[in-house]
Specification:
This protein is an alpha/beta fold and 299 residues long. It contains twelve helices and eight strands.
């Protein structure tokens, strides 16, 4: 039985947190390790299109890129997933049939999270029925910031139940939570409610993913594992555009949680614009020559 006292968390030492992140960001990665790290980033990336002007054609193109990120290089891994709105899940499922790429869908009145619970649950069930294997839900930040933690917990539990066999990523929208203490508490609530992933952002709010916030989330899932034995993933979404920054995140994952989390099952990047820079750096390591940005598809 979960009670309000279970949502209590110790205060965050902001200076210690930010100092640790700054230290990890100085780690250097040598050539062979860098190449493997870039391939790992590709395998951990969720390609996403979440715009009102999305079309089946755009989703099909995104799926092709997720399946084969760079034409002529079958040795590169596929991306982890493609994330779309519920009405385009069927298109993504058909386009990715036979691949290892998962189909994810946002739900629960994305990106605001402001809707009646029955509408959120219906949204989730529609996406799962269409074939989504992963659901990205948004918490009600209004309820959280008003201190209605039990409501946030209950909604996550209900959405998790509506997911059935699909994995649930809980989007905290950390840029709206404002403080590290709030982020830590939101992580605690989502973990107790059974989320399979903690996710930073919808990508619609600034700031989105930051290294100190992701460090807090990694610490939360590590401590939850030590407490319960259950492995929960972390997804850094929004604002990550450079390969060098993605590699810094991987260092932080390894140093905070260990190499078991260096796997697409437990760590993801939600940053479609990141992929092209990763591919450019990967080609440069192989050939010694940079390709032009226009040599890569924009989707």
């Amino acid at each position: 039985m979960i009670t309000p006292t279970d949502f209590r968390v110790p205060p965050v030492d902001a200076i210690a947190l930010e100092t640790r992140v700054a230290e990890l960001a100085t780690r250097s990665i040598k050539k062979d390790a860098k190449k493997k790290g870039l391939e790992m980033v590709v395998a951990m990336t969720d390609l996403t299109t979440l715009e009102g002007m999305d079309t089946p054609g755009k989703v099909k193109a995104l799926c092709r890129k997720a399946w084969r990120p760079l034409a002529g290089h079958p040795e590169l891994p596929s991306c982890a997933a493609v994330c779309v709105y519920p009405d385009l899940v069927g298109t993504a499922v058909e386009s990715l049939r036979g691949s290892t790429v998962a189909v994810a869908s946002v739900a629960t009145a994305f990106p605001s999270g402001r809707a009646a619970l029955d509408e959120k649950l219906a949204d989730t069930r529609r996406a799962v029925a269409a074939g989504a294997g992963e659901i990205d839900m948004v918490i009600d930040r209004g309820a959280f910031l008003a201190g209605r933690y039990g409501q946030v917990f209950d909604e996550i539990c209900r959405v998790k139940d509506a997911c059935g066999e699909a994995h649930l990523k809980v989007i905290l929208e950390t840029g709206e939570l404002r403080t590290y203490d709030n982020v830590r508490r939101a992580c605690r609530i989502a973990l107790l409610a059974g989320g399979d992933f903690l996710k930073t952002s919808t990508g619609k709010v600034t700031p989105a993913s930051t290294m100190p916030v992701v460090m807090l989330m990694l610490e939360a899932v590590r401590d939850h594992y030590l407490e319960t034995g259950r492995l929960v993933g972390v997804k850094a979404a929004g604002g990550i555009r450079a390969a060098k920054d993605a590699l810094r995140y991987l260092v932080m994952v390894n140093e905070t949680c260990g190499d078991h989390w260096l796997d697409a099952r437990y760590f993801r990047f939600g940053a479609s614009s990141l992929l092209n820079d990763v591919l450019m750096q990967w080609v440069r390591l192989r050939t010694g020559v940079y390709q032009r940005p226009e040599d890569f598809s924009k989707d």
